[in-house]
Design a protein that fits this description.
Largest sheet: none
Oligomer: single chain
Radius of gyration: 12 Å
Order of helices and strands: HHHH
Helix content: 55-70%
Number of helices: 4
């Protein structure tokens, strides 16, 4: 299953789907392009959040 930027952007849905993947019931993937899109959207929509607070979400 591929998680798109719209899935990874919101906390609640992202948390649920990552936890589901951690159970081993599904295997998930995303690309650097998807992470870049999420990063651009976060930067544009949430300038109040310092980069250091969420860069671990897009690391690796």
């Amino acid at each position: 299953m591929v998680y798109d930027a719209n899935v990874l952007y919101g906390n609640t849905l992202r948390d649920l789907l990552i936890r589901l993947a951690m159970t081993g019931q599904i295997q998930v993937r995303w690309t650097h392009g998807i992470l870049d899109e999420m990063q651009r959207n976060l930067a544009a929509n949430r300038p109040d959040i310092p980069w250091e607070s969420w860069k671990s979400c897009v690391a690796s």
